[in-house]
Design brief:
Length: 374
């Protein structure tokens, strides 16, 4: 029995949202009291203040809160006029919401394989463009921005819209710009597990386009021009005042939290890059490491070994979208996207969140080192 197995080991949870809550508890309670005493629980000043702060943070003219990250993509597509007969290019290795929102808008998702960084491969996009293509949804997976300079050039050449799926990447940079400011529209999830996570569902859309912003204001609020006049058929997708107030509290700390995740990522990289494939930062980018994903052909064995030593891990996502039952009618089959399918069988997400302690980080690294020594 090795040294790690010989003694009782501490559990390292993959996620521990309670730790962050305790760190901001007093501010959250103050926000709750402020909203409760205001009597304004839907729309209102709390939402406006958060939207203004979020737009300034992302470097866009406008931001608006919506019910969740899926609605953010769906409403963005509706604002762009995407509908029946249209096609939208995206990656097959995302969460299912990236694709079902396209289908819900009435369009067809068209998949393009990814590179080793998990993001859509710009070299393959043009071959997927048809006369029906209306938009591209690059997914900034794991908190790393896709190669937006190349994607933007392709979109401009072919007259296509870009909707950033930045659900995992709030605060991430490419050059001088942050995610959400690199396309026509940026879409964020504020789900509790995200870097800017709330206490329930929430979403955010960013844009510099005044016309799209005006359209989205109506689309998220029943299509209303004002309380009594309905201008278009819309939807009910509003970020409530309480979640907006909580979001303002957390937004003020987001850069510090993201910086801590990058610090943890550096520790993982230094301790593991000689054993497994680890993500490498490029000079022009700043990832926020929503996930720190390692690659090894011995994935399942390693995960079991880590768990036996108290370390939890996850796979994001084991079944690519094109192989899901829901996508059967799209006509894809196994082997169509070889990089996506290989990565899905070899990737492991390690625990990474700002409150992770030094001893826990060391334990994660040690559990992987121990596996390869064994």
């Amino acid at each position: 029995m090795n040294a790690l197995n010989a003694t009782a080991v501490r559990r390292v949870p993959f996620v521990s949202l309670d730790r962050q809550y305790r760190a901001v508890r007093d501010e959250l309670h103050a926000a709750l009291d402020r909203v409760g005493e205001s009597g304004m629980y839907i729309m209102g000043d709390e939402l406006r203040r958060f939207e203004e702060a979020a737009a300034a943070y992302c470097g866009t003219r406008y931001a608006l809160g919506v019910a969740d990250g899926s609605d953010a993509i769906f409403l963005a597509l509706k604002a762009l006029g995407v509908g029946p007969g249209d096609e939208v290019i995206t990656a097959p290795n995302s969460f299912i919401a990236t694709a079902w929102t396209v289908v819900a808008a009435g369009a067809k998702p068209v998949f393009v394989d990814v590179t080793e960084d998990f993001n859509i491969d710009p070299a393959l996009i043009e071959a997927a463009i048809t006369p029906r293509t209306k938009a591209i949804i690059p997914v900034h997976l794991t908190g790393r921005v896709a190669q937006m300079d190349r994607i933007a050039a392709i979109a401009k050449k072919h007259g296509l819209h870009i909707v950033e799926d930045a659900a995992q990447a709030i605060g991430a940079r490419l050059g001088a710009k942050r995610s959400g400011a690199l396309g026509d529209l940026g879409c964020f999830s504020l789900h509790p597990l995200k870097n800017l996570g709330l206490y329930g569902d929430g979403g955010l859309i960013t844009t510099d386009n005044e016309s799209l912003y005006a359209s989205l204001l109506k689309l998220r609020n029943h299509g209303l021009r004002n309380r009594d006049e309905c201008e278009i058929w819309g939807f009910n997708s509003r970020l409530d005042s309480l979640q907006a107030a909580f979001a303002s509290v957390k937004l003020a700390r987001l850069d510090a939290w993201n910086s801590r995740c990058r610090e943890i990522a550096g520790m993982y990289r230094a301790g593991l890059k000689h054993l497994v494939q680890t993500p490498e930062d490029r000079p022009e980018e700043e990832s926020v490491y929503h996930n720190f994903v390692i690659i090894t052909p011995r994935r399942d064995e390693l995960m079991q070994h880590m768990l036996s030593l108290g370390v939890e891990s996850r796979v994001h996502y084991p079944i690519p979208i094109h192989l899901q039952q829901a996508a059967k009618d799209l006509g894809y089959r196994e082997g169509d996207f070889q990089v996506t399918e290989r990565l899905a069988k070899q990737m492991i997400s390690l625990p990474i969140y700002p409150e992770l302690e030094a001893g826990e980080i060391a334990q994660v690294i040690a559990s992987i080192v121990d596996f390869f020594k064994s």
